[in-house]
TrEMBL record:
Residues 13-188 form the Metallo-beta-lactamase domain. It comes from the Archaea. Keywords: Hydrolase, Metal-binding, Zinc. Pfam families: Lactamase_B. Gene3D superfamilies: Ribonuclease Z/Hydroxyacylglutathione hydrolase-like. It comes from Aeropyrum camini SY1 = JCM 12091. The keyword Transcription does not apply. This is Zn-dependent hydrolase. GO terms for molecular function: hydrolase activity; metal ion binding. Residues 182-201 are annotated as: Disordered. InterPro entries: MBL_Glyoxalase_II, Metallo-B-lactamas, RibonucZ/Hydroxyglut_hydro. Its cofactor is Zn(2+). The keyword Metal-binding applies.
């Protein structure tokens, strides 16, 4: 990986991450068409779009990227989740219509996504959404956590398709399996570390040992 940049897009300020290496770029959670300008600036020739989950703010620019030639990597449930949230996305101005995309690279539990110099291990982490995944790069000690964990908080589960019990299991898994020094790059807000969240995030503090 030669570069890793972050854009915070839309009224919900979704974090869109772009990793680049040797003309290949990985876009994680494309929240707005502004990402196209960044891809041009980075000289991206081949583009992979990875989706942590199908909520409208995280898939708002999937279709323009696909039109540019990008391939889509996501959990197989992501298109159905995107369709379920499309009406709300239109009302909030993120979408003009239901996003239509297929999954070219299936990101399910235990698989690995190789793109832009990264080797990302896929962890299935439902709760906030039934298709939610975390992309973990063990070598670089970083994880793209989507809306699973934020600095001091977690993704909502009191929404359509949310599952509080699944969220607790997913949080416990991350706390158990990832090293505390792992950088967490969330879908909203500033980055943090797992160690910090274990100490200060009330939702992780109350997990059963």
């Amino acid at each position: 990986m030669e570069a890793l940049e972050k854009l915070s897009l839309g009224i919900l300020r979704v974090n869109t991450y772009v990793a680049a290496a040797r003309g290949e770029c990985l876009v994680i959670d494309p929240g707005g068409a502004e990402v196209l300008d960044l891809l041009s600036r980075l000289g991206c020739r081949d583009v992979v779009v990875a989706i942590t989950h199908g909520h409208f703010d995280h898939v708002a620019a999937v279709e323009p990227l696909v039109a540019r030639g990008a391939v889509v990597a996501a959990h197989p449930l992501a298109p159905r989740v995107a369709e379920a949230y499309a009406e709300l996305g239109v009302k909030m101005g993120y979408l003009t219509a239901t996003p239509r995309f297929g999954v070219d690279i299936e990101l399910s539990e235990g698989k690995t996504l190789e793109a832009a110099g990264l080797s990302l291990r896929i962890l299935y982490t439902p709760g906030h959404s039934p298709d939610h995944i975390v992309l973990h790069e063990p070598r670089l000690r970083l994880a793209f956590t989507g809306d699973l964990i934020f600095m001091g908080s977690i993704g909502r589960v009191d929404i359509a398709l949310g599952d509080p019990a699944a969220m607790e299991r997913s949080l416990a898994r991350i706390a158990r399996e990832l090293p505390p020094e792992t950088r967490l790059l969330p879908g909203h807000g500033p980055e943090t570390t797992l160690g910090r969240e274990l100490l200060h995030n009330p939702y992780l503090q109350r997990l059963s040992p």
